[in-house]
Specification:
With about 350 residues, the chain is mainly α. It contains twelve helices and two strands, in the order H-H-H-H-H-H-H-H-H-H-E-E-H-H. A two-stranded antiparallel sheet has the order 1-2. A hairpin with a 5-residue loop joins strand 1 and strand 2. It is globular and about 60 Å long.
Length: about 350
């Protein structure tokens, strides 16, 4: 960019023919998405993508994507390919817009970098255009002029992306502080604010919100209740148990490639639970005999017991994450439906 002005969208630049060595635009974009899914937008460099692909130099990629901006264009459109839209608007305009919004919300949770990058480049790709065209067509069908339809589309899209950006930044904060789930957040909040707030202070309603959060119990089934007397919920993990810093990231789901010709292989992505090998490793190692004279199998029994405890702890953490995700989705949907309520009232 610099003095040469903005880089044109990659959709305006021709795709070069494939070379015999097997590298193509689709491979480059899929590799870039894998990197960003696991390392965030900061991990996205041409050098890192070249290393992921085993390419000789980063310069070898520019022939296919022209620039890093071109790569971001393709990544954003790949993500939008995961959002389903009806071919034409139907009678249930609210239900259809809600479904598209929920699909977009789910996509942004799979790709937290999306909300950070989407406003940096023009949404001119075929999949982004398809989604926007559907929303505009919905309001056109409701008798709105183009300016009003565009205003409504921007309002709804702003809500979705705003919520997605807040979610992504919160998860980034979790990672920086090695929080695995909400139990860790509760523990830290209890240490900071547990005895400091008073309802007779200047913010009584916020105090009640904080007290409610600190009192929540997160059981293995993902349901919430009151905390136990010691301040830790029954689903809280024991002190000293293994923690995985990146376990709070949403599980990666393969997305359709930017050209619409394939999907990222599931094997190329790390599963959401891939960091939980420590428990199984302890189970294997604990079964080994350290010296002669031990009762055969005694070490295996202890190791098996530890493995069971680790599995139960992991299962409880997984259940909490499912419960957290469901609550987040419910709050997102409530906010979106409130927007639709306002639009519907204005259309009457």
């Amino acid at each position: 960019m610099g003095d040469q002005g903005p880089t044109p969208p990659i959709w305006l630049l021709p795709e070069p023919p494939e070379r015999g060595w097997g590298l193509g635009r689709v491979d480059i974009v899929n590799a870039a998405v894998r990197l960003a899914d696991h390392g965030g937008a900061e991990a996205l460099t041409m050098r890192a993508v070249a290393k992921e692909l085993g390419a000789s130099t980063p310069m070898s990629l520019y022939r296919y994507v022209h620039s890093k901006d071109g790569l971001v264009d393709l990544m954003l459109d790949l993500a939008n390919s995961e959002v389903r839209t009806p071919e034409v608007p139907g009678e249930d305009w609210r239900g259809e817009l809600t479904a598209v919004a929920l699909d977009t919300w789910a996509m942004t949770k799979r790709h937290p970098w999306y909300a950070r990058l989407v406003h940096q480049r023009p949404p001119a790709g075929p999949n982004a255009s398809r989604r926007t065209e559907f929303v505009l067509a919905t309001f056109d069908r409701l008798g709105q002029d183009l300016a009003s339809a565009l205003g409504y589309a921007r309002l709804l899209d702003g809500y979705v992306i705003g919520q997605a950006l807040q979610w992504a930044e919160e998860r980034a904060m979790w990672q920086r502080n090695a929080f695995v789930d909400v139990v860790d957040v509760q523990r830290q909040a209890r240490a900071w604010f547990g005895g400091a707030a008073a309802e007779d202070g200047p913010y009584p309603l916020l105090v009640r919100v904080l007290e409610s959060f600190l009192a929540e119990r997160h059981d293995a089934d993902g349901e919430s209740g009151e905390a136990s007397a010691d301040g830790a919920g029954s689903g809280a993990e024991a002190e000293g148990s293994e923690r995985v810093a990146d376990a709070g990231e949403p599980g990666a789901r393969p997305g359709a490639d930017a050209a619409g010709t394939g999907r990222v292989a599931e094997a190329d992505r790390e599963g959401a639970g891939s960091g939980r090998t420590a428990g199984s490793g302890r189970a294997v190692g604990s079964g080994r005999t350290a010296g002669a004279g031990r009762v055969p199998g005694a070490g295996q029994t202890a190791g098996t017991g530890q493995a069971v405890l680790d599995q139960e702890s992991d299962a409880a953490a997984d259940a909490r994450k499912v419960g957290e995700a469901a609550a987040e989705d419910a709050q997102f949907r409530l906010g979106f439906e409130c927007l639709l309520d306002g639009i519907a009232a204005r259309l009457r």
